Amino acid sequence: MSVLQELGAQVRATSDELPTGLVTVAMARLRSATELLNWVRQSSVDPLGVPQLGNATEHAENAAAALRIAQDALAAYLGVLGLAGDAAAAPESGWRAGLGEPAPPPAAGAGPPPPERLGPWWQQRVAELTGQAPPPPDRDGRTGAADTGELLRRVAAGVRSGDRARLGRDLHAVNASSGLALSALTPPVLHRLAGDLLGHEPRPADVARLRSAAAGPVGSLLPGAPPTVLDTLLARVCRAPEREPAQAHPADSAVTAAVLTGVLLARLGRDPASLHPSAPEPVRARDTDA
User: Fold this and answer.
1) Residue ranges of the domains in the chain?
2) Quick check: pTM over 0.70?
3) Beta-bridge mates of residue 174
4) How far is the C-alpha of 289 from the C-alpha of 137, rounded, in Å?
5) For residues 258 and 81, is the Cβ–Cβ distance under 8 A?
6) Which helix (H) or strand (E) element contains residue 53?
7) pLDDT higher than 50, residue 153
8) What is the band of 287 on the pLDDT scale with cuts at 50, 70, 90?
């Protein structure tokens, strides 16, 4: 290996080790927490930490932008060295972050977790979004605390089959914390899938194309979802400026993002099992100007 090739390998390794995916996941989780607290604070005069979360989200967004700029600069440097074939970023492993995150094991000797005490608002909103009534509650009144990664794969399978009844059952079967966690889990997955579908990193100009591909299936499966929720999700996927969103129910983004994930998987012809962390890395098209 020549000195030039060795330098190129070191630059490429440095680029690959930048924690872009982890910062993206952190940013998504902060944004999800902010949306939920914004909903809760409607009934309270206490700001409940929303300003602090807003500042943290802004810092995370700045960090993510700086990491992308650094990756672009390293890729440009490789191009200057004549290693243009190595300049394209490798498939980002961070997009799988959280997909296989198991639920924490119960403490030794601990009984079943107590039921949620916020009322069945998650099931009520799922019923409004999907048009599917919740099943009768269990005797103890509890709902499942499924692993969110597995929930996303189940939702994607229901989307692939076009079965709205199945989609409703899967969403009704979990509690609010598991369902809301979809908001934090899906952003890096959606960004990766959209890039694979487009053949390049999603750009602001791609919002209309993605909307055309997804609006029909999403609207069919979620007839009760406000259209602005999908528009906001697509703007975030494409790093486009967001319109000032109306105050949406916190379940809307979580459920719509999971359904959108299933729609993009179906457009790519991929099985929901490809979202499992142990699944082979899907082949990603090289960035083009198409």
Assistant:
1) 1-90, 94-103+118-290
2) no
3) 144
4) 52
5) no
6) helix 50-80
7) yes
8) very low
